[in-house]
Amino acid sequence: MPRFTPAELEAARDRLVPDVIADGLSVLFCGINPGLMSAATGHHFARPGNRFWPVLHLSGFTPRQLKPSEQDELPAYGLGITNVAARATARADELGEEEFREGGRILTAKVERLRPRWLAVAGVTAYRTAFGDRTARIGPQDRTIGDTRIWALTNPSGLNAHWTVQTMAEEFARLRAAAMTDAP
Question: What is the CATH superfamily name and number for domain 6-10+24-181?
């Protein structure tokens, strides 16, 4: 992983990180928004300490731990990545509620077009705001987007210390089991 100066990271602010998507995925993972490291590298969940990639592997979604730079391998596993808000920031709390709501509208249209079996939003608070569901909890949601079911996950950021890698992997594994159960 290249090292970036604070100025280089700041220059990545507001950059967009392209989605890793395809039609008919098993699970489309959805982050809150790209961090500055992700924007600087062009890879989702790129910040060292972000637990997405280890948890994805430990839960059985991938046969080995992928690096952020290997994100384009995900569709071969029936997986993809997008974000609620496209704009890169240093912290998710730099996004306003309207930006989350607009992101929810854009995400809904994207899901309607791509038709993944599951949308997995990695950040239950972001899910609550984007979809106006203040009572959502971690796990499967009652709401669907067409035939796409929704699962709210915890945010894999290293700042979210309440969840360990192991407990996160267990929740991701529950999603994986559900995605395998409803596979065609």
Answer: Uracil-DNA glycosylase-like domain (3.40.470.10)
pTM as predicted = 0.94
Catalytic residue set: 33, 44
Q: Give the model's pLDDT for residue 106.
A: 96
Domain ranges of the chain: 6-10+24-181
* pLDDT value at 75 more than 60: yes
CA distance 117 to 182: 8
